[in-house]
Design a protein that fits this description.
Oligomer: single chain
Number of strands: 0
Structural class: mainly alpha
CATH superfamily of the largest domain: Ferritin, core subunit, four-helix bundle
Order of helices and strands: HHHHHH
Shape: elongated
Number of helices: 6
Length: 177
């Protein structure tokens, strides 16, 4: 095994803490701002995300202290879009989850082949963030936003071609009527 760069690992764990603590604030804010007929289940989802973010921050802090580090009192920046439709909230949540995923991947890169425990911790967090992203993308389908094209551009291209064909057929049919 390679030697662990404790200082770099501590820095990433502090970044994770800052980002996860910002997630607590972000998801709590979203839970307060949700409106509409699906408010109750989305509020419950957002509150659960806030609770989970706090747990993630606490776990990262425990590991950080275990490595001899000092947990930050800072939180990551939380931009306010002032857009609070369910669609906007879910899209912002998806963007937040992507950043969290990227930070955990950086941690994995840093600790891989250096610490079995930290590598497993990073992999577990990556899996959880990927699952959150999938859940949010599924929720976005209900509000008419398709994110499959971000991961599978060829699917998005095919959907556009199919829509153009359908539009062409509809125009032709209306012209015949």
């Amino acid at each position: 095994m390679k030697e662990l760069d404790t200082e770099a690992t501590q820095g990433l764990l502090n970044r994770i803490m800052e980002f996860e603590l910002a997630g607590v604030v972000r998801y709590t804010h979203y839970s307060l701002m949700v409106a509409g007929p699906n408010r109750i289940p989305i509020v419950q989802f957002m509150k659960a995300q806030a609770t989970e973010s706090l747990l993630h921050a606490s776990t990262a802090g425990e590991i950080l202290v275990g490595l001899g580090g000092h947990p930050t009192l800072q939180i990551a920046d939380i931009p306010e879009s002032y857009k609070h439709s369910v669609k906007d909230i879910l899209e912002e949540s998806l963007a937040h989850e992507k950043v969290a995923l990227d930070i955990y991947k950086q941690l994995l890169d840093e600790v891989e082949d250096r610490s079995v425990y930290l590598e497993e911790y990073a992999r577990t967090q990556i899996a959880q963030e990927e699952m959150h992203g999938m859940e949010v993308r599924k929720m976005l389908r209900d509000v008419g936003v398709v994110h499959a094209h971000n991961e599978f551009p060829e699917l998005h291209h095919e959907k556009k071609k199919d829509k153009k064909k359908k539009d062409k057929k509809d125009k032709k049919k209306h012209a015949e009527d």
